[in-house]
Amino acid sequence: MHELSIAMSIVELAEEEAQQRGVGIRAVHLKLGPLSGVVKRALLSAYELACEQTILEGSSLIIEEVPIEVYCGKCAAPRTLNSMQWFICPVCESPVSEVLHGKELEVTALEIQDLEVQA
Q: N or C: which end of the chain has fewer CB within 10 A?
């Protein structure tokens, strides 16, 4: 399950940022495309595991699913595909090959919280 190694990398990246800024992390926001090769449910489970006994324990992974968008040369326009199996323009039904979006696996934001200083 490569989702665990991906989740561990996300946690590591967020931990480094939190430590540099002296803050805690409430949530990690991620863009995920269907062509990324990552299964959303598996990544969510792996994230919980990866967060155990780290400063991210209890944080959330918020995933924004990105649809597959291609460029249709015949229409000269970007088009959103209805299926991952058929790379055919939904308007003119021409084959398309230029993928504009849908491969994303990208951390887009961290929700931070101030660490409480105990005296």
A: C
